[in-house]
Amino acid sequence: MQTKKQKIKQKIAATLVVAFMFMMVVGSFGIPNIMAATVVNVQLWQNILAGALNIDSMAQVTFPDITVGSAANSYGNLAVVNMQDWRGNGTGWTITSSCNRLSIAAAGSNNINNDAIAINSGQVGVISGLASGIDTPAEGWLTLNTLRTIVNTAAGSGMGSYNLSNTVINVVYNGLANQLVGAYKNQLTLTIVSL
Amino acid sequence: MIIKEVRKKIKLLFFLAFLTGPLYALAMQSETYRIPADTVNSGGNLSDSASYNLGDSTGEAAVGEERSASYKSKTAFWYMLPSGGQLGLSCEASDVYMVDYTLGNANNYSKYLFSSSQECIIIDNTSTAWHLTIQSSNMTSARNNLANSNIFLVTDGTVASGDTITDPTVGITEPAISDYSLNTARTVISGDATASGTYNNRPTVKLSNLNTLYSETISGTVTLTIIAD
Q1: What pTM, to 2 d.p., does this model score?
Q2: Contact A48/B20, CB-based, under 8 Å?
Q3: What's the confidence (pLDDT) of residue A150?
Q4: Which of B122, B147, B135 is nearest to B197 (CA)?
Q5: Quick check: B52 pLDDT over 50?
Q6: Residue B30, class by beta-carbon neighbours within 10 Å (0-12 exposed, 13-18 middle, 19+ buried)?
Q7: Residue B15 CB neighbours (<10 A)
Q8: Cβ–Cβ of A15/B95 closer than 8 Å?
Q9: Alpha-carbon distance A82 to B121, whole Å?
Q10: How many Å is the maximal CA-CA distance in chain A?
Q11: What is the b/e burial string over B49-86, where b = at least 16 CB atoms within 10 angstroms of the residue's CB?
Q12: What is the DSSP string of B69-127?
């Protein structure tokens, strides 16, 4: 009986040893990395955020001298004006222009009203962006006694950076004999407006 | 009776041992990650110097290589890693979000270095040279289509810093400074025959000509490939 028990215990111990060795061997067989990846796809994302709709400020326009009593057209060239549409929505935009009368400070002076001042918009150049769908009015000279659109873009156009060049202002002097001498000034306003 | 009971227990023990053995042999994996081998030891480390990489572990019961006329067996943890001349590649992130870009930026491009949590890991268990390539699809949204000719890998020839970074640097070279359009596969880094072990790579990507896009989120697929030379 004692011998049998001892034999059984020995068998149990042997079984445990075999089991342990089996685990170590089987666990280390080094089953090959059957599918070691060699190609990986990564999804790349970029958020594009809206910027601004903007028109840069412009320099002063200077006209040649005119003589009292002599009717004349006086032309002044507008410096290049830059505008940008960074909104990224393709809504489109226009540029409007307006001005007040030309006047001097002296009391009793005769002003040059804004119906005698006209604008002829030049050409729109593309600095970077979509070139199509941008134009200037076909009418030529537009008097500035009311708000005038000088650049048009269609919806889906005008996304990018542009400039307006060769725009001319014409002051029509009717030769009034009692026109006071002086440096007449006014304010010309260009506005970029979303469609 | 007692003997019968004991015999039953012996059989049960043997059966349990058989069940637990194969658990060590399974490589754990998910859709995104794979663990080809693991071990619970008393210690271990990854070390490197200018010329060598070393991986070590302590406390394994049986280590070594045994052969017969027809078979070879390699026991212990390190043999279970990609072996027999295999290269492996994985990336920490399946989605990489670049820093937001605001239209009208004077640069007209967005450049981004993958972060350390987005790096791609190369496992080299070969004695041959290899190279890692990258290529991109177009990046699109509802109204945008940024062609992959406007998507670039940016390198500067410096492995450990700057644009596109790899660590460690043993046996690794990076292409000369340039923007490489990803409309075709481009080499990110090359490993020569002395390169061995694990390398962490963080590529720099650049998207150009963004200012005329619509303000939407664009996305595309970047494909990285490890190729033995």
Answers
A1: 0.70
A2: no
A3: 94
A4: B122
A5: no
A6: exposed
A7: 10
A8: no
A9: 49
A10: 147
A11: eeeebeeebeebeeeeeeeeeeeeebbbbbbbbbbeeb
A12: SS-EEEESGGGGSS-SS-EEEEES-SEEEPPPEETT-TT-EEEEEPPTTS-EEEEE-SS
Q: Is the pLDDT of residue B195 over 90?
A: yes
CA A189/CA B159 separation, integer angstroms: 56
B103/B126 Cα distance (integer angstroms): 47
Q: B160 to chain A, minimum CA–CA distance in Å?
A: 22
Chain A residue with CA closest to B142: the answer is: A89
B98 in A contact zone (CB under 8 Å): yes
Residue A1 C-alpha from the chain's centroid: 99
Give the pLDDT score at A6: 85
For the segment B163-183, what is each residue's pLDDT rounded down to a tens digit? 999 999 999 999 999 999 999
More confident residue, B144 or B56: B144
Tokens in use for A95?
A: 């540029």
ipTM over 0.85: no
- Position of tokens 């469609």? A195
Beta-carbon contacts of B3 under 8 Å, excluding residues fewer than 6 positions away, are A4, A8
B 187-216: CB under 8 A from A: 205, 207, 210-216
- Which stretches within chain B are classed as H helix? 2-20
The secondary structure of residue A69, as a DSSP letter, is: T
Q: Using the beta-carbon criterion (under 8 Å), do B212 and A130 form an inter-chain contact?
A: yes
Residue B75 φ/ψ, nearest 5 degrees: -105, 150
pLDDT tens string A150-192: 999 988 899 999 999 999 999 999 998 888 898 999 999 999 9
B/e letters for A45-70, b = 16+ CB within 10 Å, e = fewer, are ebbbeebebebeebeebebeebeeee
Residue range A9-38, pLDDT digits in tens:
888 888 888 877 766 655 544 444 434 679
